[in-house]
Amino acid sequence: MNNILLTVSYDGTEFCGWQRQDGSEAESSQRTVQGEIEKALEKIFKQKVNIYGSGRTDSGVHALAQAANFFSPVDSMNEENYVRAINSFLPDDIRILKAQKVSENFNSRKSATSRVYRYFIAFGENPPADRNRFCYYVPSWKPNLERLNKYCECLKGEIDCASFTASGDKSLSTFRFIEHAKFFYQKDFWDKEYLVFEIEANAFLWKMVRTLTGTLINLDKADAPEDSMKKILEAKDRTKAGVTAPSQGLFLYKINFDGIRRHV
Question: Which of 29, 215, 235, 256 is least crowded, fewest Cβ atoms below 10 Å from its Cβ?
């Protein structure tokens, strides 16, 4: 059987996250990205096929380039046909962008060396209605880009991120290796400017990116000293951090497989 790697984009608004909800009652009541793709694969191959994602995204979180692999029961199908065939059975809020054959021992989660997330923030005037589901609007705030990036300077290297995880996280360790974290401005097709928070790490704790984003925004709004983020990080205490930003502004932007494999 061929091992097929898919690049997947989705609008997470109507999904209960990436991961399939096990159990007949859960599967029928909770719509998930993994579940919808597996339904499409079953229609194509007339048998159940499991797909394995590079990471779990929570309810309402989007993806520009999620990575997921599955073992195809058909060896004769070419890569382009996988894209067309799967998309023909998927709802409009999920699209397969690319399919490629990979080695038999490739695993989307275990083979990934880093994940990149971007969080989109609107400020100033209200964003148009059709973009509300893809950004977090923070009224009455003018971002200080230089100060925000000063806060981010401590978010690099192997770090205990206990201050930025949610209650109930089942990770064995709260240490993560952060490659970089930064803020920058980006315009959309309609010339609307957004503030973007980008972070790359080997892996993330539950709700970590959203908690980091909410904390950084609150620090900037409060004109907090430049070492404030470092002190919160060193506290290793979730109560010292800020609010968790809402899910609609967060995108899984890219999965890397060619970097250094860090421990989780």
Answer: 29
Rounded distance, CA 105 to CA 248, Å?
34
Token pair for 79: 């890569």
d(CA 17, CA 26): 13
The residue ranges of DSSP E strands in the chain, in sequence order, are 2-10, 51-53, 62-72, 94-102, 114-123, 136-138, 157-160, 175-187, 193-201, 250-256
pLDDT at 192 (0 to 100): 86
| Residue 209: how many other CB atoms lie within 10 Å | 27
Q: Identify the residue whose tokens are 């997470």.
A: 12
Distance of CA 77 to the CA centre of its chain: 30
Is this structure's pTM higher than 0.85? yes
CB burial of residue 28 (10 Å; 0-12, 13-18, 19+):
exposed
d(CA 122, CA 194): 5
54-75 pLDDT tens trace: 999 999 999 999 999 999 999 9
Catalytic residues: 58
Q: What percent of the chain is predicted at pLDDT more than 70? A: 97
CB 115 within 8 Å of CB 203: yes
- HSE, CB side, 13 Å, CA atoms: give it for residue 259: 18
- Asked if residue 29 has pLDDT above 80, the reply is no
Tell me which of 103-107, 109-113, 165-169 is least confident. Answer: 165-169
